[in-house]
Design a protein that fits this description.
Elements (H helix, E strand, L loop, with lengths): L4 E5 L7 H8 L7 H9 L9 E3 L1 E6 L2 E6 L1 E4 L10 H9 L7 E4 L12 E2 L2 H17 L4 E5 L3 H9 L3 E11 L6 H5 L4 H16 L2 E7 L5 H17 L8 H10 L4 E8 L2 E10 L3 E9 L6 H17 L3 E6 L10 E11 L2 H26 L8
Helix pairs in contact: 2-9
């Protein structure tokens, strides 16, 4: 449109926080503070293979739309796996990297990826992103975890859709955790009570700390847990202390830290993001193993918090069918993909068609295993 101007920015410091957040709404993972903290801390930067190329749409001095975009030199930290596609390119002597990615780094939370004031601006952003991919040296464009309506818009624009499964919990207005348990089948209810009892019998108690109640010693302990978890899996943490310090300073109202104690000593922790509507389970680690400790720290404490605050949705994160038995039900999540090389685009389209059938079958199987009465 003649009165709109597109601009690529490489740092959110070039955009006023209030302008950005007026588009991002109340989703903490899309907030100026969260994204800018990823960049300013060096976690998501050109040096780590996440070169920001934010697509912005302006009308005069007003920010009308924005899209978090990155030029990626690898596929780490995405939670939608395309390593096989990259290997296929390499076998045929083609470059898969760099690629263009629309996503929140290291974060499988769903949300809008076309931040815009109206439908027209949303379409303009998407067309601009596709033009950007077509006209640059990237192999492809990938947009991860958009909402379903945005995913369908991307499909209409010529992108291929891919579905995955996550596990989310919905608050039916429960008055208490006991009230919530009463909706579950006898076997599932009994198992959860046994898990919680084992943790309590081990002498483990919990504290929930929000925002400014999280002190420096708490952050020190959380970081030790976070690093330990990655070491145990033989990998390097994506996020550093500077990032978490920035979150504590810039968006404390969106942070919940759960700390587990035994004999007065902290032994495990889980850091979560939340707003008035949605709770996002994110990072966890423990210094000791105890049966049921993970479920209590990451799920049952989170559910109690959501019930107390009347938060409607708990996004439990990627993967983990074990979440189903705790009441987090399977939901489809989306990603959209465009590949410049026609032969590979056709091959991927065929693969996604077959994969989609497997996902639907798996979704049906999981839904038949609902832990709730009469489902």
């Amino acid at each position: 449109m003649p009165d709109r101007k597109l601009q690529i920015v490489e740092s959110l410091s070039q955009i006023a926080q209030a302008e950005w957040d007026s588009l991002a709404g109340n989703n903490p993972t899309l907030s100026h503070a969260f994204l800018d903290s990823l960049h300013s801390s060096g976690c998501a930067s050109a040096a780590t293979g996440w070169a920001p190329r934010y697509l912005t749409l302006w009308q005069g001095e007003q920010l009308r739309g924005a899209m978090p975009l990155y030029v990626k030199s690898h596929s780490y930290g995405e939670f939608v796996f395309d390593w096989a596609w990259a290997e296929a390119y390499a076998r045929h002597g083609l470059r898969y990297y760099p690629k263009l990615l629309g996503a929140v780094p290291f974060t499988p939370c769903s949300g809008t990826r076309l931040l815009a004031r109206d439908a027209t601006d949303r379409v303009l952003l998407l067309r601009a992103a596709l033009d950007m991919a077509q006209d640059s040296d990237v192999s492809s464009l990938h947009i991860l975890f958009p909402g379903e309506s945005e995913a369908l818009l991307m499909q209409d624009a010529g992108m291929m859709l891919r579905t995955t499964i996550q596990f989310h919990w919905n608050n039916a207005g429960y008055a208490s955790f006991t009230d919530y348990l009463a909706t579950m089948s006898h076997d599932k209810r009994k198992k959860i009570r046994q898990e919680r009892r084992r943790v309590a019998d081990a002498g483990i108690g919990f504290e929930q700390r929000v925002g400014s109640d999280i002190g420096e010693p708490d952050w020190d302990f959380f970081m030790s847990c976070y690093h330990r978890t990655y070491r145990e899996h033989g990998s390097t943490p994506y996020l550093n202390r500077a990032f978490f310090n920035a979150l504590a300073r810039r968006m404390p109202e969106n942070l919940l830290l759960v700390i587990a104690y035994r004999e007065g000593k902290p032994i495990a922790s889980a850091l979560n993001l939340f707003n008035a509507d949605t709770f996002y389970g994110r990072y966890w680690g423990a210094q000791e193993f105890h049966s049921g400790l993970h479920f209590e720290t990451c799920y049952y404490q989170a559910l109690e918090f959501c019930i107390a605050r009347k938060i409607g949705i708990f996004e439990g994160g990627a993967q983990g069918a074990h979440k189903l038995a705790r009441g987090l039900l399977p939901v489809k999540t989306w990603s959209a993909h465009w590949l410049k090389e026609p032969a590979f685009a056709n091959a991927v389209e065929d693969y996604l068609s077959r994969e989609s059938g497997s996902i639907e079958t798996r979704l049906d199987e999981l839904q038949e295993s609902s832990p709730f009465k009469g489902e």
